[in-house]
Amino acid sequence: MGARQNLTIQLAERPRGDIIPGQTFRQVRLTAPTVNSLSEGQVLVEVLYLSLDPAMRSWINDVRSYLPPVAIGETMRGTVIARVLESRSHSAVAGDLITSFNAGWTELAVLSDGQFDVVSSSSMPANGKLTDLMGVLGITGLTAWIGLKHIGQPKPGETVVVSGAAGATGSVVGQLAKIRGARVVGIAGSDEKVRWLTEELKFDVGLNYKSSDFREKFENATPDYINVFWDNVGGEQLDVALGRAAKNSRFVMCGGISQYNAALHEGPRNITNVVYQRVRMQGFVVFDHIEDYPAARAELAHWLGEGKIKRKETIIKGGLRVAEQTLVGLFRGTNTGKLLLEQKSPSDPGTT
Amino acid sequence: MGARQNLTIQLAERPRGDIIPGQTFRQVRLTAPTVNSLSEGQVLVEVLYLSLDPAMRSWINDVRSYLPPVAIGETMRGTVIARVLESRSHSAVAGDLITSFNAGWTELAVLSDGQFDVVSSSSMPANGKLTDLMGVLGITGLTAWIGLKHIGQPKPGETVVVSGAAGATGSVVGQLAKIRGARVVGIAGSDEKVRWLTEELKFDVGLNYKSSDFREKFENATPDYINVFWDNVGGEQLDVALGRAAKNSRFVMCGGISQYNAALHEGPRNITNVVYQRVRMQGFVVFDHIEDYPAARAELAHWLGEGKIKRKETIIKGGLRVAEQTLVGLFRGTNTGKLLLEQKSPSDPGTT
């Protein structure tokens, strides 16, 4: 009987447009690491969940960005929740659950101290779930909190418009803005998502950008113009929003999911409104604000526990084999709320 | 013999693209105001100089902006230097020189207290000229100072790139940035302007955006990318600059002369770099910062007096009759430095 294999997904080529399953990535079976692979200060983990995020599309482009691009032949990057199988670290024992940005798309990984955080149940609200660590209490929730704190700064009564509002970050942005007393307009890509925004999350208005009268409805929904625009999408929605910018408005530039796959980007024609309306349009990257994480996590856990922040997850089963198709689905809007891939259920016993 | 006439230029129609002399504006001869027209607190003035500015093109568009559009049939708006002919105000006496934003394109005007500022020679450096009140010491100089203070904030050693660098605002921006220790790259539209920037104003690099290898030269001139970009132009230059944005760079959005005349605007395709490089892209309007004027004027007068700020003027003679053609010329890049129209020489005697 041969050594155990470790299914790993590597970047095979850089897509020019859409990710093509079976071509952009390749599935390789490497010899699995074992307890003998560990040095002092390391743990062997098995991945339970992969976080799937729009930013992943940008990580595989060879452009100057906030992280170096994933190299051809490198394991695809991403946040995971994993279980410790073996430990030579003082930070964790076998059986611990951890989150990590250093394992990536693989079944088994060796991580060193500093590359993982042990999950502490004390920081979770009573109604918290393990997977919230990749959603409301993870990078996507932190992104919402930090972008609103540093750039958006919504005041009571202001109009906040969120694009990608039914996604993991956008849904938290809108709810935080409601908590801060703002009037919130959410934009999403289906009537079902829009219903979730208005009926469950209590957004004041929900707009389906695919409807034929989207621009007209957008204008009607912003009679006093936009004080804060949260951009997850770019492209046409950003352009329309610039056309409706209020004086001294803040445009929180978080992402541009409509543009990541586009070979030829389209710029916002209403950019001149940045001058006329004195818009502050500012990009940010959550990783620059690690000092804010504790305060942000504490507040997000509080509102989650109070039921003031609701969340939805779209959890895809099938493990790493379907990771590529699942990521493609993200760009087609298949998910509401946080999109996760379950590689292995936490209730399955650990494998050694 | 009939009453004296007052040549006035009114907006006749809103241009869709370029201003068309003889069509966009109309020249009307109204009955001239006289001393009998004055109420208590008013002055009768004759215009000596008109300031011609890129923003004028935007003032005649019917769009939501920082000022209401000039109405059809209204006197064209603009800053003037004028001489008081008659006064029923305690603020001025006949013979005083004043600046005003409320007279517009007309030979004679009645202004009320609060609508004009009397020129005080004590606030001018020894080498100052009357027309500096529309240039380095006027709105264009104030614009440079205020945009750098609130948004650009150049630090010693940083790379500052200025578009429209040979214009009235851009030339002051670059020189202030040099005074603050930055490395300055100026973009202009002719080799002659570029020579003025590098030889007279001591910019580190000058680039002619009309040269065929502009993009390559731009890259070579910004090996450490751009920390501050001052945008007077928009369009392609803004797009190229976004492609070269440094991490945490500031884009001072002052104007978009390349776009004012365009019926169809083009947006910057590199807008996604706002996220990747955490760019702060912020528009401003000088009139929002009146509280800064005294400090800004004092510093600008100081550097002008020291010879650390140099300026050039392009003064067109011919009076109001050629105002339209002169404004059209501004968009074709005919001027270096501040563009002025001389309606009447200050050395000519006052007319009553």
From TrEMBL, chains A, B:
Domain of life: Eukaryota
GO MF term set: oxidoreductase activity, acting on the CH-CH group of donors, NAD or NADP as acceptor
A Pfam match: ADH_zinc_N
Record's keyword terms, sorted: Oxidoreductase
Listed Gene3D superfamilies: Medium-chain alcohol dehydrogenases, catalytic domain, NAD(P)-binding Rossmann-like Domain
Domain spans labelled Enoyl reductase (ER): 23-341
Protein name: NADP-dependent oxidoreductase
Organism for this UniProt entry: Hyphodiscus hymeniophilus
